[in-house]
Amino acid sequence: MKNTHLKLLLHVCCGPCSTTVLERLFHNYDITVFFFNPNIGPAEEYELRRDESKRFIEQAYGPDVKFIEGNPDPGLFYHIARGLEKEPEGGRRCQACFRLRLEETARYAQENQFDLFCTTLTVSPHKDAMLINRIGEEAAEKMGSISYLPSDFKKQNGFCRSVEISKENGLYRQKYCGCVFSMEHSVHLQ
Questions:
Q1: What pLDDT, in 10s, does the model give residues 115-132?
Q2: Which string of b and e fits 124-151 if b means at least 16 CB within 10 Å?
Q3: Cα separation of 125 and 175, whole Å?
């Protein structure tokens, strides 16, 4: 039987966030994971999150979900964060970071004949799903011929389920969002 599912490019920020999202979307879409996160630092943290994402996807979905790594150059993030270094978590720096990642996901999706794109960012209880969805819709409009799949994956216990699946699979769970500025913020909270 021919697979008639729409091709979905799923932006993934880490292994734990991908768990619930893939569980919910897998049976309805032909999914390719796009790990584009030049914001994650330092380099060792980036590599750990990338490798854990890839390991989980291969372990849980085998060849049924493809994994693609976007450009990891942190200069892409530092360029858009210039002047926003002192912004609080959830502020303008985070919005610029969401925009960077979703616009690149939209561009890649359009250039590689995907039907739509989405992100795992909305599974986090610390992220504003309405803001992320608005940025995703704007990125889709900017491209012109790609659609964005709006979501709020934290709903229906999505975040709790991601914690559960992460524990079952021994996934590394980070203690900060990803950029060095959020790492500094999390250190001050401890």
A1: 999 999 999 998 999 999
A2: beebbbeebbebbeebbeebeebbbbbb
A3: 14
Task: Map out the domains of the chain as residue ranges.
Answer: 6-189
pTM of the predicted model, to two decimals? Answer: 0.93
What is the 3-class SS of the chain, one letter each residue? CCCCCEEEEEECCCHHHHHHHHHHHCCCEEEEEEECCCCCCCHHHHHHHHHHHHHHHHHHHHHHCEEEECCCCHHHHHHHHCCCCCCCCCCHHHHHHHHHHHHHHHHHHHHCCCCEEEECHHHCCCCCHHHHHHHHHHHHHHHCCCEECCCCCCCCCHHHHHHHHHHHCCCCCCCCCCCHHHHHHHHHHC
Choices 3.40.50.2020, 3.40.50.720, 3.40.50.2300, 3.40.50.620: CATH for 6-189: 3.40.50.620
